[in-house]
Amino acid sequence: MGHSRSGSLRARISVVIAVILLVGCAPPYDTLVIPPPPQGVSIPVKSQLALIVEGRVNGITANILLDTGTILTSLASPRSITKFNLIGDGPNPFDGSERDDLGVCRAGGVIDFDPTLFVAETVDLGGVVMGHVAFTVIHETGFDTFAEAGVDFIMSAAALMQVDWRVEDFGARLVILPANARPRPEGAVDLNVGGPFVPFSPLKVGVIALRIRLADAASTSEVLLDTGGAMAIALGDEVLTTAGIEAASLAQIRTSILGAGASCETSILRLPKVDTGRTSVSGLPAILIPEGRQRALLGWQFLASHESIHVSTAGSWMELTQGADTIAVLSEPLGTFGMALMFKPEGAYDIRSVSDGLVAARAGLIVGERIIRLNGIDVSTIEGKSELYGRRVHRDGGAEMLVEDASGAQRTVFVESDTIL
Fold first, then answer.
1. Which DSSP letter does residue 33 get?
2. Which three-class secondary structure state does DSSP give residue 80?
3. What does the pLDDT read at residue 16?
4. Number of alpha helices (DSSP H) and beta strands (DSSP E) in the chain
5. For the segment 307-359, what is each residue's pLDDT rounded down to a tens digit?
6. Rounded to whole angstroms, how far apart are CA atoms 57 and 122?
7. How far apart are alpha carbons 10 and 194 in whole angstroms?
8. DSSP letter string over 355-394?
9. Is residue 82 classed exposed, middle or buried when 0-12, 13-18 and 19+ CB atoms within 10 A define those classes?
10. What SS3 state is found at 20?
11. Contact by Cβ (8 Å): 169, 144
12. Which of 19, 209, 336, 419 is 20 to 30 A from residue 85's alpha carbon, by CA?
């Protein structure tokens, strides 16, 4: 997930000026009420695809996506208003013109922002508590972001910008630490940080970015750190052009992908080299963002392929610790078994297309069938979605799928691993 406007960090954060004028003297939002202890708190990460954890919103258990790619207010669905006792707190200063686009490849749906800004009195992440947390409620036609992700809330970058945080064991665990919990280590990567505290505004708006070098370009390119993005990297064509790379010259892995709710006519390309200053990868699979221009996102698949990462927005640095297989894993495209899938509200994935000659076709899966469970896990759950789209099943050699046809008849099919998107 990432912001929909292109341009520099300064251009992205300029929307704050309008927000200041609109919100007036409202009480401060997203206040850190109970900070983490010196040793930090450890929380399991529930997905291979994004930084999703379990927390409590107004005392009620919730699945929360901590998304540094969402830079305005945190987001909620209409059904969360009553389920989690959210309270209307005046007009929403965001009219949608500067909204996050909720996916690098979104088609077939319409998003509207609710005119009321809602708040939760508390959001508890493993004992770290934020108070008076602001949420924009989004109304969607043709797609449901929250059902697709399996989450109740999407917390913006500001939530993680008041603390230090570390992701350990290749994306399996989040550790929340006090700000400036440790001095900057040797070899850390510089971060370009905007926010989260904005003068004269009760709202917190945050951006975490870094600079990368593509191929052997003379200059670097800015990329948004995106813990909600289920990809390694995504970028617009102008980012490639600025680096002296023509998209047409790159090897293509696939010419279309299933994006947020519909087929997306774009390309997945192999970049000649991506260098963060700490991790250098050749052949990294990259999504070309439709009409992305100068926009670029460094996603969860890149971050979680490291043994650990440590982010200090207060210190403006990030430490990336590679594992033995980090570079090899990053060079592998994620697999979808040679199928295009669409999540349905009843909790299954419809098979929309099957590529000839790939493993889904060889296993006998056909268009119109629905996937109900994968390796015994319901695909409507975060864990099931993670298995379906993550790397684990492909490294394990494949997956057993329970599928159902239009008549309701069910059968079990084993589909071999496949690293072709």
1. E
2. helix
3. 45
4. 10, 32
5. 999 999 999 999 999 999 899 888 877 667 888 788 887 889 899 888 888 88
6. 6
7. 8
8. -TTSHHHHTT--TT-EEEEETTEETTSHHHHHHHHSSHHH
9. exposed
10. helix
11. no
12. 19
Q: Say which amino acid occupies 419.
A: T
Higher pLDDT, 100 or 203: 203
Which stretch of DSSP H or E encloses residue 190? strand 189-190
Give the 3-state secondary structure of 110-121.
EEEEEEEEEEEE
Among candidate residues 344, 362, 364, 341, the one with its CA nearest the CA of residue 353: 341
Query: Are the C-beta atoms of residues 119 and 49 closer than 8 Å to each other?
Result: no
Sort strands 164-168 and 41-44 into parallel, antiparallel or unpaired.
unpaired
Coil, strand, or helix at residue 316?
Answer: coil
pLDDT digits (tens, 9 = 90+) for 142-179: 677 888 888 999 999 999 999 999 999 999 999 999 99
**What would the DSSP string read from start to end of 93-154?**
S--STT-B-SSSSB-S-EEEEEEEEEEEEEEEETTEEEEEEEEEEEEEES--HHHHHT-SEE
First to last CA, the chain: 19
Identity of the amino acid at 255: T
E strand or H helix at 60: strand 60-66
236 pLDDT tier (thresholds 50, 70, 90): confident
Q: Can you tell me whether residue 37 is helix, strand or coil?
A: coil
Q: Which of 19-33, 146-160, 279-293 has the lowest mean pLDDT?
A: 19-33
Residue whose C-alpha is closest to residue 297's, from 112, 67, 122: 67
Measured CA to CA, the distance from residue 233 to residue 149 in angstroms comes to: 19
Please classify residue 194 by burial: count the beta carbons closer than 10 Å to its beta carbon, then call 0-12 exposed, 13-18 middle and 19+ buried: buried
Overall average pLDDT of the 188-214 stretch: 86
